[in-house]
Amino acid sequence: MWIDTHCHLDAAEFDADRATVIADAVAQGVAGLVVPAVECATFDAARAAAGAIPGGAYALGIHPLYTPRARDEDIATLRRAVERAMGDPRFVGIGEIGLDFFVSTLDPERQQFFYVEQLKIARDFDLPVILHVRRSQDALLKQLRIFTPRGGIAHAFNGSRQQADLFVERGFCLGFGGQMTFDRALQIRRLAVDLPLSALVLETDAPDIAPAWRYKQRNSPVELPRIAQVLAELRGVSSDTLSQATCANAWRVLPRLPGAMAMAPGDGPVASISLISDEPAR
């Protein structure tokens, strides 16, 4: 059994064959899958995608790459959406949120505003967070020390061992996926081998971050077992050992995930979670 802790299955890249991708992933042993939203407009799509997946779950958040078109009022919309989603067993946390200092056109102060406000929501609802971490490890950690959410996942982690340890100390697991499958990804591979097994979870970030064998092609949760096999070989452990450990880790840092994975496709609330503002839609 495998859990894809980060997959944007609601993305338009899957519109033509989403049902087939889901069926193929399940056939490959993917028993759990987390769909993080990226902005308010995708909240319902993320929930709907999760609801169509055996073992599907979702998170709600505003991604740093979407902050240029986000409005300040979106924080209030997110808070209301989270309050409503707390009654949905498929809802597992706040994400994808964070900071991206790689894309030079993004406003750091704008990103920081949305990151901090979303950490407050996670703290207030005692929820884990799914973090976007790109050249921003220290800045993310600084705010985590202040607002102390209950941990979560540092997605696509590519920092130093010291930074990795600091995230782990704060209750986070680190997400490893397609990047790790490239021979030249030396730092990521060292981390994947040297970190305690209890610190690792698996992910695809599909349709992005494709593994080496699908370079510059669409990624998919179908690839997760093969990605996992690369990690097992790097660490010198069996697939069964890795499966048991990474699933247990995902359940630990996303405590609502086991309940989500127990639900059948189609089960759960049907009301909208994103269009809940008292203001008219724009």
Molecular structure report:
The protein is α/β, with parallel strands linked by helices and about 280 residues long. The protein has a single domain, classed as Metal-dependent hydrolases (TIM Barrel, Alpha-Beta Barrel). About 40% of the residues lie in helices and about 15% in strands. It contains ten helices and eight strands. The protein has helices spanning about 20-25, 45-50, 75-85, 110-125, 135-145, 160-170, 185-195, 225-235, 240-255, 255-260; strands at about 1-5, 30-35, 55-60, 90-100, 130-135, 150-155, 170-175, 200. An eight-stranded parallel β-sheet has the order 1-2-3-4-5-6-7-8. Helix 3 (about 75-85) runs parallel beside helix 4 and helix 8 crosses helix 9 (about 240-255).
Put simply, the count of helices is 10
**SS-based class:** alpha/beta
Radius of gyration: 17 Å
CATH class: Alpha Beta
* Number of individual domains: 1
- Please list the strands of the largest sheet in the order they lie side by side: 1-2-3-4-5-6-7-8
Helix content range of the residues, please?
Answer: 25-40%
Question: How many runs of DSSP E, i.e. beta strands?
Answer: 8
SSE succession: EHEHEHEHEHEHEHEHHH
The fourth-level CATH homologous superfamily is: Metal-dependent hydrolases
User: Quaternary status of these chains?
Assistant: single chain
Unreliably modeled segments? 275-282
> Which percent range describes the beta-strand content?
15-25%
Distance from N terminus to C terminus (CA atoms, Å) equals 43 Å
Question: Mean pLDDT across all residues, rounded?
Answer: 95
Enzyme class: hydrolase
GO molecular function: hydrolase activity, acting on ester bonds; metal ion binding
Family: Belongs to the metallo-dependent hydrolases superfamily. TatD-type hydrolase family.
Keywords: Hydrolase, Metal-binding
